Amino acid sequence: MNVRLAIVGTGLVGASVGLAAKRAGVPHVGGIDADPDALALAVARGAVDLAATSIEATVADAQLVVIATPVATIRGLAADALGSNTTCTVTDVGSTKATICAALERESRFVGGHPLVGSETQGPAQASAELFDDSPWFLTPHVSTDPERYRLVQEFVGALGADTVEIEPTAHDRLVALVSHLPHALANLLVNQVGAAAESAAPASLRDMTRVAGANPRVWVDIFLDNAEALVDVLGEHRRRVEELEEALRRGDPGALTAWIDEAALKRPR
Amino acid sequence: MNVRLAIVGTGLVGASVGLAAKRAGVPHVGGIDADPDALALAVARGAVDLAATSIEATVADAQLVVIATPVATIRGLAADALGSNTTCTVTDVGSTKATICAALERESRFVGGHPLVGSETQGPAQASAELFDDSPWFLTPHVSTDPERYRLVQEFVGALGADTVEIEPTAHDRLVALVSHLPHALANLLVNQVGAAAESAAPASLRDMTRVAGANPRVWVDIFLDNAEALVDVLGEHRRRVEELEEALRRGDPGALTAWIDEAALKRPR
After folding, report:
1. Are B214 and A242 an interchain contact pair (Cβ–Cβ within 8 Å)?
2. Is B2 within 8 Å of B26 (Cβ atoms)?
3. Would the pLDDT of B213 be above 70?
């Protein structure tokens, strides 16, 4: 794909965007990161062709800018990029969308985005050109988003190997609270409760369920706080379901337990 | 290991005991299963040398009998084996131990056991000689257990490749409620709550966390009911922890969330 690309934030996701873009034939990728080591490693890995030293320099020649920094910093950096280069299209990879898209709702050149590739790793060392292959990548255009800009981002996301899922920003946040933030929160809760008991006895199921626990506090605290309302809702619903299970166990009710497991067998993602 | 072995119940775990025993040089393995197809498949796979048609015939010549049936049936079958062959040692692989060991507390030839190899599969088709390698295998001797019988079972478990963990039956049930039954229950709860939302968007973390969901209702309903009291305790503690998280999210408290994730990073089983 022939587009001049700039990446702001060359951690795991940003550097993977660079590698997947190079795989898709993107001729030039500029990049910047607050951490000079992360930026140097992204260059060394071939994810970034040119390391810049300022946001202005990074986006100066770009047609498409991808903001791949922690969610709390995205709207400020997106506004900087849009202000500094008055023709480029800007998208992001933040795990929450309502706050960011509301802050940028007048920007016709901004298209909110979120690749669903949650990982327990971080940093450009773990980056991969294949990270997005066949994974969902949410795009959350708002009312003022220019359709041409949307199509550019959609084409780019497809070129990276991902499947575009178009969704309204608030609906996105409710969906990821359920399919991503709730499982992540349960992994942390489970690890903290099990604690030292897992030292003598950690079955494979427990290791699988807690693989993401403890990952990237700097990233996840932002995500949890930014999506706090939706996450509180799904956690409340979870507690109600736990109470129902406790009641079935107290009653010694095999029918209720069988129905509950059968429902899970039907609904399990494969 | 030179012991005449009989296996009652040739599903995933029973047939794997047979395969691992053959690997360890056990010369003769007799077997029986309520399901003739499961028994025939265990024979075809080499897990059982001789298929029997009655419990009496199965255990007649055995020095060691392993009961590998669903937990609700174990104490009855163990009593049958002990009554039918007055010299053999009997052990089991049930996921709960307090009820079974209490029912057999006068039997000096019974040693409660539980290999921690929870799996989402079932049946002898999935059996493997390697299933127990480097996994914990709980042994729960009771007051009247003969030390010589205990040593035989301990040697056998080691020959199968597992690591013996000796623990009191009630302590065992509290431990597995936490490290095995709670994660399993959370996988089911999570799948049932996420439901159809996972169809458009199932991140790898969600798939990992729900791998065991919906598995083997016939086996798990028994386990959950037999360990209901301990499981209700850990589920109540889980709900208290979920409420604490909800409160931190409502307060918008980054310090509490960071401490919570940092604790998980320290405690995560590796």
Report:
1. no
2. yes
3. yes
A239–B239 C-beta distance less than 8 A: yes
Q: Is A210 helix (H, G, I), strand (E, B) or coil?
A: coil
Chosen from B138, B243, B261, B263 to mutate, greatest number of chain A CBs within 10 A: B261
Q: What is the pLDDT of residue A119?
A: 60
pLDDT in tens, B62-87: 999 999 999 999 999 999 999 999 99
Taking the alpha carbons of A193, A195, A196, A201 in that order, is the dihedral positive or negative? positive
- The C-alpha atoms of residue B98 and residue A92 are separated, in whole angstroms, by 54
Nearest CA in chain B to A115: B203
Task: Please report residues of A whose CB lies closer than 8 A to that of B251.
Answer: none
Question: Do A10 and A69 meet the contact criterion of CB atoms below 8 Å apart?
Answer: no
Q: Identify the band that residue A206 occupies on the pLDDT scale cut at 50, 70 and 90.
A: confident
CB A96 within 8 A of CB A173: yes
**Alpha-carbon distance values, B196 to A30, A178, A235, B199, B206 (Å):** 40, 11, 18, 5, 13
Distance from CA of A87 to the nearest CA of B (A): 33
Asked whether the predicted pLDDT for residue A195 surpasses 90, the reply is: no
- Put simply, the answer to whether A208 touches B213 (Cβ < 8 Å) is no
Distance, CA of A109 to CA of A26 (rounded, Å): 20
Q: What is the DSSP secondary-structure string of B164-193?
A: EEE--HHHHHHHHIIIIIHHHHHHHHHHHH
Pairwise pLDDT comparison (B20 vs A217), residue with the higher score: B20
Residues A100 and A79 sit within 8 Å (Cβ to Cβ): no
CB contact under 8 A, A205 and B254: no
Which chain B residues are closer than 8 Å to A97 by Cβ?
none
Q: Which of B71, B111, B70 is nearest to B91 (CA)?
A: B111
Question: Kind of pairing, strands A110-115 and A136-140?
Answer: antiparallel
Task: Report which of B170, B197, B265 is spatially closest to residue A212, judged by C-alpha positions.
Answer: B265
What is the interface pTM, i.e. ipTM, of the complex? 0.83
Mean pLDDT value across residues B208-218: 85
pLDDT of res. B119? 60
CB contact under 8 A, B117 and A183: no
> Among residues A145, A99, A250, A244, which one has the least CA distance to residue B230?
A250
Three-state secondary-structure class, residue B208? helix
